């Protein structure tokens, strides 16, 4: 552990130049006293490190010195695909590996490329979740990721709401994890399907391994799955009654693709000018959040679980506005 920390301290100074003991301690997650001891250890090992006093002082390396200790560990190499996604990396338990991998990559880059990398990081940031949306609770994400790495068969208790609401048991072969709009999904076989990780109530690794399907491409499967989900007329849907104003507002609430699907299912207007349609849904809370934005221009007719959820939410809101 200490050897890894010494390497990280050395790479921090190499990549960023002069740093105070307090800043080094914050980066490494240790105390300033530990930093003092680590600096002494590096100096004793022949590293040309020195300190400057004063308000802008700190530790730095002699000009021209560069370490060659830039080899990535297996864990760090495996985390490289998440270097731009600190929150997902932390959720997968790879936060420390990502930070270490970034340091080593920066140290290995020639100065012009390293400077360009820093400029990009200062100017661009990816924030996956949508506005006003809390992160999806994913208590089983780490267990799913571990089984995924090990090609291990798992048994899950999965909460679904369609076609019949309830908790079902599934025996799965984990093939991939996908982060879409701040929500984690597990892609799993044997019959390849997609499961929302937040709906997995329990995940039990079994003492059994499987062989991944030859030629399975996670990115290609996900692209086709999203396209099929957004364009299909079958699947998990809710029956909704919409006013003319509600139909007009659909693009702002559901987006263009889902709106096209809804409009294909519109029935003829009733005596009040309202029309029934089927709306594609992912989960009860997700559906309710969208349909509530239509206010009094939408009435949910089915499934019963969604109707109940909508009613409870609306009554709770009404109590706030007597």
Describe the structure in your own words:
This protein is of the alpha+beta class and 322 residues long. The protein folds into four domains: 1-61, Winged helix-like DNA-binding domain superfamily/Winged helix DNA-binding domain (Arc Repressor Mutant, subunit A), CATH 1.10.10.10; 74-122, no CATH class; 140-231, SH3 type barrels (Roll), CATH 2.30.30; 237-320, no CATH class. It has 13 helices and ten strands. The protein has helices spanning 2-16, 21-28, 32-44, 74-78, 86-91, 95-108, 111-123, 141-150, 218-231, 244-254, 256-264, 284-292, 304-320; strands at 49-52, 58-61, 152-160, 166-180, 183-189, 193-196, 200-209, 237-242, 275-280, 298-302. The strands form three sheets. Strands 6-5-4-3-7 form a five-stranded antiparallel β-sheet, covered by helices on one side. Strands 9-8-10 form a three-stranded antiparallel β-sheet. Strand 1 (49-52) and strand 2 (58-61) form a beta hairpin. Helix 2 (21-28) crosses helix 3 and helix 12 packs across helix 13. The longest helix is centred in the last third of the chain and has 17 residues, at 304-320. The N and C termini lie far apart (60 Å). The model is unreliable at 76-84 (pLDDT under 50).
Quick summary of this structure?
With 322 residues, the chain is an alpha+beta fold. It contains 13 helices and ten strands. Keywords: DNA-binding, Transcription, Transcription regulation.
Low-pLDDT parts are 76-84
> What is the CATH architecture term of the largest domain?
Roll
Number of domains: 4
**Can you write the helix and strand succession as a string?**
HHHEEHHHHHEEEEEHEHHEHEH
Q: Class of the largest domain, according to the CATH hierarchy? A: Mainly Beta
> What does the average pLDDT come to?
78
Measured by DSSP, the beta-strand proportion falls in 15-25%
Pfam families: HTH_11, WCX, WYL
InterPro entries: CBASS_pafABC_assoc_protein, DeoR_HTH, HTH_11, WCX_dom, WH-like_DNA-bd_sf, WH_DNA-bd_sf, WYL_dom
GO molecular function: DNA binding; DNA-binding transcription factor activity
Domain HTH deoR-type: 2-57
């Amino acid at each position: 552990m200490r050897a890894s920390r010494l390497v990280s301290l050395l790479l921090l100074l190499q990549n960023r130049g002069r740093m105070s003991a307090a800043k080094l301690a914050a980066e490494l997650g240790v105390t300033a006293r530990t930093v003092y001891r680590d600096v002494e250890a590096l100096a004793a090992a022949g590293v040309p490190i020195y300190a400057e006093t004063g308000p802008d002082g700190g530790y730095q390396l002699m000009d021209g010195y560069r370490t060659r200790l830039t080899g990535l560990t297996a864990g760090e190499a495996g985390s490289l695909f998440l270097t731009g996604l600190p929150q997902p990396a932390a959720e997968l338990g790879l936060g420390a590996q990502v930070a270490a991998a970034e340091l080593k990559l920066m140290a290995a880059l020639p100065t012009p490329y390293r400077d360009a990398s820093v400029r990009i990081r200062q100017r661009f940031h990816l924030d996956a979740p949508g506005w006003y949306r809390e992160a999806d609770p994913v208590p089983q994400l780490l267990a799913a990721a571990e089984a995924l790495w090990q090609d291990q068969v798992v048994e899950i208790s999965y909460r679904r709401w369609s076609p019949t609401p309830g908790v079902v048991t599934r025996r799965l072969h984990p093939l991939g994890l996908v982060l879409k709009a701040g929500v984690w999904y597990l892609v799993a076989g044997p019959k390849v399907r997609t499961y929302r990780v937040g709906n997995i109530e329990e995940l039990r690794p079994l003492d059994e391994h499987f062989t991944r399907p030859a030629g399975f491409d996670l990115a290609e499967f996900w692209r086709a799955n999203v396209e099929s989900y957004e364009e299909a007329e079958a699947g998990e849907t809710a029956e909704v009654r919409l006013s003319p104003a509600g139909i007009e507002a659909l693009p702002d609430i559901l987006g263009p693709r889902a709106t096209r699907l809804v409009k294909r299912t519109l029935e003829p207007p009733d005596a009040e000018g309202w029309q029934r349609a089927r709306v594609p849904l992912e989960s009860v809370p997700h559906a309710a959040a969208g349909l509530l934005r239509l206010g009094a221009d939408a009435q949910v007719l089915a499934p019963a679980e969604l109707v109940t959820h909508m009613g409870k939410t609306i009554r709770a809101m009404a109590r706030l506005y007597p």
